[in-house]
Amino acid sequence: MKRRGMPKLIESLRGYNFKTFLSDLIAGVTVGLVALPLAMAFAISSGVPPQAGLYCAVVAGFLISALGGSKMQIGGPTGAFVVIVFDIVARHGLNGLLVCTVMAGIMLVVLGLTGLGAAVQFIPRPVVVGFTNGIAVLIASTQIKDFFGLRIDHVPGEFAGRMKAVATHFQTIDPTTTLLAGGALAVVIVCMRFVKKVPGSIAALLLGTIVVAALGIPVETIGTRFGGIPSGLPAVTVPHFHTDMILPLLSPALTVALLGAIESLMSAVVADRMSGDKHNPNVELVAQGIANIATPFVGGIPATGAIARTATNIRSGARTPVAGMIHALTLLAVLLFAAPLARHIPLAVLSAILMVVAYNMGEWREIPKLLKMSWATIVVWFATFALTVFADLTVAVQVGIVLAALLFIHQVSRTTTVEKVTKEYVEDGRLHILQDKPIPEYVTIVRIHGPFLFGTAEKLSILTDHIADLSPVVVLRLRNMTAIDATGVLALEELADKLHATGRHLILCGARPQPARLMRQAEFERHVGRDNICPHITDALERARIVHEASADMGTVSNAC
Fold first, then answer.
1. Considering its fold, how many domains does the chain have in total?
2. Comparison of pLDDT for 290 and 259, the residue scoring more
């Protein structure tokens, strides 16, 4: 295997020293403690014992960091899998879940080895946001029972039935449980906003557990529902498999693999932005696949990259994948030495923590942006969201992909035009040509040619990966960009923000009617300024001269809009 296909750990160990290890140690222990309540909460919400989440976080977390293509990625159970895992367990039992996870792991390995890791970019932004919004709503709905202490013997698996059961039994609300959950929720929010150095989930977990144990408050705990968490290493068992299981589990396994790929690569992209590194998507998917093949043998649930824990890892000072491995070892130490204490953890506190997780993962700020886009974008987002909530996650994935393909065909078909060449057309074209115009040294001109839609937006990395090589003023020619969608607009917004963060200036010019209209609807000008969106290259070069002269007077390139 070529060096570029090697895990990031091998690259990171070159020149590794004690100072780096100390940074990784602090970050690893911190994120390990943050992962503790989340791993148990995700497992409980998925319909399996809490230790299944811990076993997954230990085994998968270690393997993803050791073998992955991202320096800072933290792997483990996440909210994205809660709904699909619950459904698999309900239909096929725990053994069915384990087999399904192995199948999904094999699919992920195949995706990585065949170089299809980049294929995830062909899922458009509206579909991803629709999935995320829907999953967040479903997670929150599963926590209502434990948050309010409702007495419901059987909670239906589907959203509509679950909400009907909640409404029917809401008169059984337990004030003590509700007060405890509300207090835990307040602690998490206060820590998030005012005491950011203290992980809110850990603070809520410790305070809630101490209060319940010290005062003997009669609320449901891990001990009363599950009998506690087994101490020591998990037993290695081989899931029972027979060929008749393949067909029924194929569709949910594909869903797990697809969600795992999307979530892990999204998390890796976030890690890149925060750390300045560049992940290898195919190596990352192979590591995710190996982790999901291994975790069922210790009774663990599916795993993927965890965005919030990855961000915590970076903010805590992580330098290499060793931090992620230490995070897994921290959880293993808890299993070995502190597992009996977990029986006192109130379920109401875990439900409050998951309510916050559901809110944070929902990407709600994306919805107003999408609603400003084309009607087709809104339809794709809403259909994916509605199907995720009211139908089935597998159906939502399948329909989302079909809608994405139809949307792509629709948008590309609109890029073909037939028009008569007139004198006005020829004269207008003179303003756009570069051949007769001198290009100053302080200007880099970049063009986008063809449709700039999901699946092609990643090509903008030719700029984002080499920003240091660009001139103080970057002019982006859109004359030959025939169409754009929500994913493309988001990519341009991120480019503008990255350029401005380095003290550079971005000017756009020559946008055709469809891209110009969609960017105007998305209020793109907020990222560059109205004066920096020009009708043609002639005006763009003049604007670049004005910006450069103003910057020279200030002694630096300004980001004035």
1. 3
2. 290
